[in-house]
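Bench notes, afternoon.
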Amino acid sequence: MDRVLLITGSSGIAEATALLAGREGYRVFIVGVDENQCRDLSSRITEAHFYVGDLRQPSAADGAISACLKHFGRIDGLFNVAGASGRAFGDGALHECTVEGWERTLEANAKPTFLMCRAVVRHWLESGCSGSILNMSSVLAFSPEPQYFATHAYAASKGAIISMSRAMAACYAPCGIRVNVIAPGLVKTPMSARAQGDPKIQEFIRHKQPLSGGFLEAEDIAEAAIFLLSDRSRHITGQVVTVDGGWSVTG
């Protein structure tokens, strides 16, 4: 396979997807802020390379695209995974959310997705190429849970990604560029460590995600992601695919 997949992030869902993509024959380009994680992950994939940068900065997004093209000569798919919780900065229920919490949460999630999408779409339009983009949202964007997950800036940032992605899909479909969104439930990743260590949340998730009987595994999301990025989903664009173990349909 001569296809190149660019993935932002180097742990959790990004790591699982990069490893799966490598097993399926993709050449993988990893973009992240932790050089050691990026180097370690790329070393476990047959054909992989990486770029270190803060994707909240336009120069890093443009640099990542340029570095991938220099190394592999092409980009066929982009999976925007990199993001963060804003709890440490004051995200929470609206009446408690700080301005810093709001701003830093949107900057960590919506801004890198915007910048990377802009950079890769510009490349595809200028070069006459087509490609597939998959953006990371969350079930919390449309299926809120007030007891344990009242993080309203996070929900807003993930909802913004859905709206932007659907608008992009409509705009660029005539150019052969597909844009979809994946919205996971609660996944066992480093970002969910707080929830994983809370017995009450563990019990709640066993009920809320009955198909998985608890936390989803990162590999569960990776399987769906590879499908949405591949030619097997070539007629699918503008869709939000929920992989949540039943969260959104369980009371």
